[in-house]
Design goal:
This protein is α/β, with parallel strands linked by helices and 494 residues long. The protein folds into two domains: 11-161, Threonyl-trna Synthetase, Chain A, domain 2 (Threonyl-tRNA Synthetase, Chain A, domain 2); 169-261 and 275-293 and 332-487, Rossmann fold. Helix content is 40%, strand content 18%. The protein has 14 helices and 16 strands. It has a five-stranded parallel sheet with strand order 9-12-8-13-16. A four-stranded antiparallel sheet has the order 1-2-7-6, covered by helices on one side. A three-stranded antiparallel sheet has the order 3-4-5. The longest helix has 24 residues, at 201-224. The mean pLDDT is 93.
Length: 494
């Protein structure tokens, strides 16, 4: 067999590789168990995807059989052929093969034709380019996990598949979110579109918000039940909704008899001209050194001593820290709710007693799947949130946001994700309806990216992604909704 190479540092090639390995797995399952067993690729987990077999709990021996069959298909170097068929024909194919979510999604496709990919007689739809043949797909592994297994991929720096490294806290948060989706009756993009066409959009919004409020209330009860906790440290990646969450948590804490004070670490950014730069000479806003750590600790210690402190506000449009007369003085039952990307890093809060901290990790872990075999990328949801918010609040174009996203993601991997395990609680801020709302705001911004721009291909990919969603009006979204942090109209003035 010819020796093939795959560049996992290239985002497009990485996506094509991952899609193709899922098709390879799907074909291997069909070869082993005919069409009696269906696989569901549920969500990302580490450098891979968590999968379950419908009506079958796979054991170690069966998993090895599956891996061997996948490797046998790799050895045969079978072509992965792109075919263009009528959309109605694709729906019929998906119906016959019990791919009901794919069938439902095609119902809302505007184009009369669709590109399918065929592997040895099995046809499926994977939302983008695929590798030319199975011979490219030899780098993968399978590992039993909970009620299913993880399909693991190589990392971006080499073609070695590392052992599974994940958090059970993270997994349970993802699973709970899937439970939310089932409760809402909206587990896929097609199901969401169907609910919108049936006039259930506002119902979905209200139910989602009620579930989120219930969860925030439970966290507040846990904090209020421990008198030693004085510092609520909230951290999470970019556009996870930390600001709105901290405000809503504060309201719930107030209802429990405490007096909370939200503090945004963003307000402690150093002035832009003093910001550290990365190896390319660009501002690195994600590193801890972008925060005035000593000023933060000094202010917090002074507050604990009962002193009145003039709190800073960072102006993102001017790149300067400002003082607008926002005074703060703590009372006996006061509690500080501190949010920012470095909230769980003890280097940030080195002056604060460890035993007094309650740590919350927040991230937008989407509850939706595109279909049975295609998890909705969590990072894409956050990126779209940021594009919309930055255009509104920071006078930043979509092209500029896309250009800095690599640096943001690199910073998250370095400064945020390593600390998530120290969290006392993980909170999922994803809203099942949000991409249908963001679509209306994001599309005009993405269309502004010109074809000659380096970010054009990524903008085009996101536009294609949003095309699968029907738009959802914003009228039913409450002023305290986390969604308002991004689209505007928040009662928290964010």
């Amino acid at each position: 067999m010819q020796e093939y190479k795959v560049d996992m540092t290239n985002k497009s090639e990485k996506r094509a590789y991952r899609r193709s390995v899922i098709l390879l797995m799907e074909k291997a399952i069909c070869n082993l168990w005919d069409k009696l067993v269906h696989v569901h690729v549920l969500h990302s987990l580490g450098e891979g995807y968590y999968c379950e077999l419908e009506d079958m709990k796979i054991d170690k021996g069966q998993l090895q059989m599956l891996k061997d069959e996948m490797l046998a298909l790799v050895e045969k170097d079978l072509p992965i052929v792109k075919l263009t068929v009528r959309t109605e024909e694709a729906r019929s194919i998906f119906h016959e093969n019990h791919m009901h979510e794919k069938e439902r999604l095609m119902k809302f496709r505007r184009s009369s034709r669709v590109n399918l990919h065929c592997l040895d007689g099995m046809m499926d739809y994977y939302y983008g380019p695929m590798m030319p043949s199975t011979g490219y797909l030899k780098w993968f592994d399978l590992e039993l996990y909970e009620d299913g297994f993880v399909l693991m991929y190589p990392g971006k720096n080499d073609m070695v598949v590392e052992p599974l490294d994940t958090s059970n806290k993270l997994f349970q948060t993802l699973q709970n979110s899937k439970g939310w989706s089932k409760m809402l009756g909206v587990g896929s993009v097609g199901a969401l579109n169907e609910a919108i066409t049936q006039g259930r959009g506002n119902e979905i919004i209200l139910l989602q918000e009620a579930l989120m409020e219930e969860r925030i209330g439970a966290i507040a009860s846990k904090i209020a039940g421990d008198e030693s906790k004085k510092f609520i440290m909230i951290a999470g990646p970019s556009s996870s909704g930390k600001t709105t969450f901290s405000n809503r948590l504060s309201i719930q804490l107030s209802a429990k008899g405490l007096t909370p004070h939200p503090i945004a670490l963003d307000d402690y950014y150093v002035d832009r001209e003093k910001s550290p730069r990365d190896e390319n000479g660009n501002y690195d806003f994600e590193c801890l050194e972008a925060i005035d750590v000593e000023l933060f600790n000094n202010d917090m210690v002074r507050l604990l001593k009962g002193e009145e402190v003039d709190m800073p506000t960072f102006n993102f449009k001017t790149g300067k820290r400002e003082y607008r007369g926002k005074k703060l003085k703590l009372g006996e039952n006061d509690i500080l709710v501190i949010e920012g990307i470095h909230g769980l890093n003890d280097k940030l809060s080195h002056s604060l007693p460890t035993e007094s901290k309650f740590r919350i990790y927040i991230s937008a872990l989407t509850q939706l799947n595109i279909d049975e075999h295609s998890p909705l990328p969590t990072t894409d949801g956050r990126l779209l949130r940021r594009i919309v918010r930055d255009a509104r609040t920071r006078n930043t174009t979509a092209q500029e946001t896309l250009a800095m996203w690599y640096s943001v993601r690199r910073g998250e991997e370095k400064y945020i994700f390593p600390f998530q395990e120290s969290a006392d609680v993980m909170f999922n801020s994803a809203l099942v309806y949000e991409l249908a709302v963001l679509k209306t705001f994001a599309e005009p911004l993405l269309f502004q990216v010109q074809p000659d721009a380096p970010e054009y291909e990524e903008a085009k990919r996101l536009l294609k992604f949003l095309d699968y969603f029907l738009p959802l009006p914003t009228e039913g979204i409450a002023q305290n909704s986390l969604m308002r942090e991004f689209i505007g109209g928040s009662c928290f003035h964010v």
